[in-house]
């Protein structure tokens, strides 16, 4: 069963490469060539997340019914849409493909989390979810930056510059999606390349711990049960704060690097390459933090610990003007933020049962939590360059809030969490 993690990690890596390609394409001249004015670029980024949120629960219910082949279908869909992005000619074309992107990509994170929940025990989920969610945005930034740097100067007919980025990345994604139809598993019972004894053992090791993990019918009662878990909604809140940091960095890091003093004169290719190292470091850090969660079987304390780094990074962006220090700040900022999203998601999924509840939970956390991504698209507007004070100030507050509050639930039962009253992390005073 162990081939499931590399496969879904590859799927999500391609998902995030295609999603973040718009940031590299914009550095290479997308807004200029499409004659985007005012906030049109930010509106197009935001509309992606609106449809991304709406489709997630429905996508997971489809996945629960037809199995892992739905993940392969999603990969093919957003691969084809990425290819189509190479041929947009104006703002309305661009807006249309962003809507289609949202519909196609919305089901990936919740779908993968749901499938992994069938294969791994509850405490094992954090490292597995942490791995694919860390490798996705972090390595997509690295490989996406390297790929964009290599492609931005290439030309095939009328396809050149930023269009070439979309074309090549879309072709690669579509090919992998088609190939995955032959190997993607749905559950331990249906894994290929394993004998009957291994499959039975895989099912038993999960069933022993997750007594409520057996398959159930999707009914209004089971849906209501999935929506009533207080831990799920707390994780949605935390995931949103983290998304402000992670999505803001992935969308605007190349632009931020361009505006950092002496880097402003660097050609597009070198800007893309300078965005690679922060992603690599963040990947290693995220997997390490997820491993610590697995070893200690604690979640909140490591969220608080990691958020300290992103807080320091954003404070540096607000207070320091030295170019080298600011570039260093991108390393600790991204590294501090990246581990927290996977921890929130795995925390919620591990506390959801039976399957319908887990399907809803794995969709709600990244879905509702996407409010942070919508905020991020407006927190780093071009007019705020080069210091981006609104976005960086917001991220200092977000990181501080997560580090201060979410560890309070560590080790408490649901009844004890309710008894916290005004000390509960979700409580907000009215002023």
TrEMBL record:
Record's protein name: BQ2448_7401 protein
GO MF term set: transmembrane transporter activity
Species for this entry: Microbotryum intermedium
A cellular-component GO term for this protein: membrane
Residues annotated as transmembrane: 39-55, 67-87, 99-120, 132-152, 164-184, 231-256, 276-294, 301-320, 326-350, 362-381
InterPro entries: MFS, MFS_dom, MFS_trans_sf
Keyword Protease belongs to the record: no
Signal sequence interval, chain numbering: 1-23
Domain Major facilitator superfamily (MFS) profile: 4-431
Bilayer disposition of the protein: Multi-pass membrane protein
Organism domain of life: Eukaryota
Keywords on record: Membrane, Signal, Transmembrane, Transmembrane helix, Transport
Upper taxonomic lineage: Eukaryota, Fungi, Dikarya, Basidiomycota, Pucciniomycotina
Subcellular location: Membrane
Keyword Transport: yes
